[in-house]
Amino acid sequence: MVLTFIHLFLAGLLAGEEFVVRYGVHVSLAGLDEPSQIRVRQALILKLRILVPAILLPTIVLGIIVLVLTGSEPGFGFRLAGVLALLILMLVTILGTLPINKGALAWQPDAPPSNWQALINRWGQLDIIRSSAAILAFGFFLIAVAMQV
Questions:
Q1: Collapsing DSSP states into helix, strand and coil, what is residue 148?
Q2: CA-CA distances (angstroms) from residue 12 to 72, 82, 107, 118?
Q3: pLDDT number for residue 129
Q4: Residue 7 is inside which H or E element, if any?
């Protein structure tokens, strides 16, 4: 039960972080001039590339451990759906947003590449998937815990 609550706490942190980045931070960046927007994006990438994996990886590992340990207890389907949502988040990150972020770190704020806006738009589309997956996973894990009470 302790692992379940630690896992739920981490899933909540992850969902909150993803929600704020998607619907708060990145929406606000669009109002900045190009050089400022690129500088802020680069600063965020440098911080979040450490913070997000530090939350995401333990959340996935604990999710799998809790899923295995609780077996066929009530809420199994929701725990499984939550773990699958986290795996989708991880795949979209590795295959989609991470390459864009790596490239963005090399952009010159006063002379960005000609396709930088298209890359940011692509990143935004992928981030909708990522943030939605994190929020859904948290919701699934909450329902699973509620079903055990």
A1: helix
A2: 24, 12, 33, 31
A3: 97
A4: helix 2-20
